[in-house]
């Protein structure tokens, strides 16, 4: 390989890593918001609520990943917490999506109306923050009294502008990078929620982060 080709390869590698470093640095800079989100989630779990997670495409498998980690912790000795992914039931998702008067935009909102309780937590995942059914799911959740959390990318899109209780943004436009940061984010959510639950005195309204 020529020296110029070798130099070009190194520059490409550097750019690939740079695209991933800055969103993670911004996540670190936003640590207080992440901690506040986890504290609010832990309070809902402490009071008997469950986590309801949803997203489209690749985010649908992220929703399932989040749910199973809460229900079946991979770290021995950690408390299992109630969580459900609204993308797991293919019959319900496709039934609502093709149903008369409902459609794809309602696949999550419909399930929330029938499965969620006011004390629950709704976590909507969207790579660009503009998924209509994720937005509808969060809107329906807010109207029913759930704590709402948006895990989004880009500039946050419609989700960030919708009045969701807590918005966590992976500041990147490359959907691959967004998804990589999202995995880090929801692992941090899981870990900090357990930190707060292990300190019940930190879960009173007066002890908010």
Automatic annotation (TrEMBL):
CDD domains assigned = SIS_GmhA
Query: Which residues does UniProt call coiled coil?
Result: none
One function term, GO molecular function aspect: carbohydrate derivative binding
For this UniProt record, give its keywords in alphabetical order, as a comma-separated list. Answer: Isomerase
- Report which superkingdom the organism of origin falls in: Bacteria
Report the InterPro entries cross-referenced here: GmhA/DiaA, SIS_dom, SIS_dom_sf, SIS_GmhA/DiaA_subfam
**Is the keyword Isomerase assigned to this protein?**
yes
Can you supply a Gene Ontology BP term from the record?
A: carbohydrate derivative metabolic process
PROSITE patterns the record matches: SIS
Indicate yes or no for the key word Isomerase. Answer: yes
Residue intervals of the SIS domain: 41-205
This chain belongs to which protein, by name? Phosphoheptose isomerase
Organism expressing this protein natively? Actinopolyspora erythraea
């Amino acid at each position: 390989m020529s020296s110029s080709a070798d130099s070009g390869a190194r520059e490409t590698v550097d750019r690939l890593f740079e695209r991933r470093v800055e969103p993670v640095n911004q996540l670190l800079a936003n640590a207080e918001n992440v901690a506040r989100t986890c504290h609010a989630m832990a309070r809902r779990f402490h009071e008997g609520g469950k986590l309801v997670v949803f997203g489209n495409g690749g985010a649908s498998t992220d929703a399932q990943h989040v749910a199973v980690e809460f229900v079946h912790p991979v770290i021995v000795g950690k408390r299992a917490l109630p969580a459900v992914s609204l993308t797991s039931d293919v019959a319900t998702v496709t039934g609502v999506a093709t149903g008369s008067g409902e459609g794809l935009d309602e696949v999550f909102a419909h399930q929330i109306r029938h499965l969620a309780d006011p004390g629950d937590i709704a976590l909507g995942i969207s790579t660009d923050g503009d998924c209509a059914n994720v937005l509808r799911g969060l809107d329906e959740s807010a109207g029913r009294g759930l704590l709402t959390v948006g895990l989004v990318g880009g500039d946050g899109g419609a989700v960030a502008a919708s009045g969701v209780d807590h918005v966590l943004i992976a500041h990147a436009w490359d959907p691959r990078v967004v998804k990589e940061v999202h995995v880090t984010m929801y692992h941090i959510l899981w870990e900090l929620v357990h930190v707060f639950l292990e300190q019940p005195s930190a879960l009173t309204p007066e002890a908010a982060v």
